[in-house]
Design goal:
The chain has helices at 8-14, 16-24, 43-47, 58-75, 84-87, 110-121, 136-140, 159-178, 185-194, 197-205, 209-217, 232-247, 287-299, 334-351, and strands at 51-56, 79-83, 98-104, 125-130, 143-146, 223-228, 250-255, 272-276, 303-309, 321-325. The chain is an alpha/beta fold. It is 42% helix and 15% strand. Helix 2 (16-24) runs parallel beside helix 8 (159-178), helix 4 packs antiparallel against helix 12 (232-247) and helix 10 (197-205) packs parallel to helix 14. The protein starts with 7 loop residues before the first helix and ends in an 18-residue tail after the last helix. Helix 12 links the parallel strand 6 (223-228) and strand 7. It binds fructose -6-phosphate. The site of fructose -6-phosphate has 15 residues, from helix 4 and helix 12. Its EC number is 2.6.1.16. It is found in: Cytoplasm.
């Protein structure tokens, strides 16, 4: 049933190219138009939206953080992202022209459901991104975009996360399309590049043996830090969450620029620091800054593990371990850079002798507030 894998989690990690492909399937025409009629929102309703909230929990919240970068950049509509358990208790400003995107793998998360109900009471339009057909959250939402990741059995989210990120891109692109931004060069390129993601994820998966070996060597770490900037920041948060929940090791994700404002003080001789490097020089203004951050932590004794695009040579002198991912446009990079972090957490947890699929204190769907 685990398809030859030791854990459901590893099986589900391996299924990610399919999860990404299936979430795109039938939603992009040959001409690069988005076909999302299933979403049940008219073009006019989509055009009327002047503000977006993305509301979710845990890993699904990290997908929301990535959505913000993409949706704001492509559409110029302001996007706020919030954990569901905070959202409704602070009286957020919502009205008919607000789109609230709720993201939930299970469709049953109570915090997210309560946030959705609050948004509806305030007359906002609610769009659910969900993996379980007919579950409560999509049933109560005005519109739904299903992720087609297939059933996820391991408690830790993997393939559903990648599928959620892809669904968020589709939401951004449809909002751009109804506003007539579709023929802007960048959006056209993104539509083409999206179709290459399943292959890119498959390529990352062929290179995971050294990552597993690295994981085995990190199993005794007392704390592990994750750094990223821009879309690499939510990926860092996700890497840290996976590690905490599976390996029970203290881990934190930081925006790399925040390092000097405090967190750098915790770095000690041998502290593993995982860095998600942005697209290389020339394609990201942030690359040089992240290279400096890697140098800074290394100068304080950190053991650096760097995830960087193929061909990025600038990081090589400062990486104690280098994990390569294929080239993608910056905004799409989380779909590939997340994968090694999942494998790393899984391997560290297994080396420590834990049940990767059923971590302590956690449930697959959290139906209490
Ligand atoms: C992490 C994880 C949790 C869920 C969170 C939301 O691996 O599985 O953080 O992401 O409980 O669950 P859903 O997406 O079902 O609402």
């Amino acid at each position: 049933e685990k398809g030859g894998h030791d854990w459901f989690m590893l099986k589900e990690i391996a299924e990610q190219p399919q999860a990404v492909a299936d979430t795109l399937l039938g939603r992009l025409s040959d001409e690069g138009d988005l076909v999302l009629d299933e979403m049940r929102l008219s073009d006019q309703e989509l055009r009327d939206i002047d503000k977006v909230f993305v509301v979710s929990c845990g890993t699904s919240y990290h997908a929301g953080l990535i959505a913000k970068y993409a949706i704001e950049h492509w559409t110029r509509i302001p996007v706020e992202v919030e954990v569901a358990s905070e959202f409704r208790y602070r009286d957020p400003v919502l009205d008919r022209s607000t789109l609230v995107v709720v993201i939930s793998q299970s469709g049953e998360t109570m915090d997210t459901l309560m946030a959705l109900r609050h948004a509806k009471e305030q007359k906002a339009r609610v769009l659910a991104i969900c993996n379980v057909n007919g579950s409560t959250i999509p049933r109560e939402s005005d519109a739904v975009l299903y992720t087609h990741a297939g059933p996820e059995i391991a408690v830790a989210s993997t393939k559903s996360f990648l599928a959620q990120i892809v669904a968020c891109y589709l939401v951004g692109l449809i909002l751009a399309q109804v506003r007539g931004i579709k023929y802007a060069d960048e959006v056209a390129v993104i539509v083409r590049e999206l179709q290459k993601l399943p292959e890119a994820v498959a390529q990352v998966l062929t290179q995971m043996e050294p990552v597993r070996e690295l994981g085995r060597s990190m199993a005794d770490a007392g704390t592990i830090l994750f750094l990223g900037r821009h879309v690499g920041f939510p990926v860092a948060l996700e890497g840290a969450l996976k590690l905490k929940e599976l390996a029970y090791i203290h881990a934190e994700g930081f925006a790399a620029g925040e390092l000097k404002h405090g967190p750098i003080a915790v770095i000690d001789e041998g502290t593993p620091v995982v860095v998600i490097a942005p697209s290389p020089r020339g394609r990201s203004l942030l690359h040089g800054k992240v290279v400096s951050n890697i140098q800074e932590v290394r100068a304080r004794g950190a053991r650096t593990i760097v995830i960087a695009e193929e061909g990025d040579e600038d990081v090589v002198p400062y990486a104690d371990h280098l994990i390569r991912v294929p080239r993608t446009p910056t905004l799409l990079a989380p779909v590939v850079t997340t994968v090694p972090l999942q494998v790393l957490a899984c391997e560290i947890a297994a080396t420590r002798g834990y049940d990767v699929d059923q971590p302590r204190n956690l449930a697959k769907s959290v139906t209490v507030e």
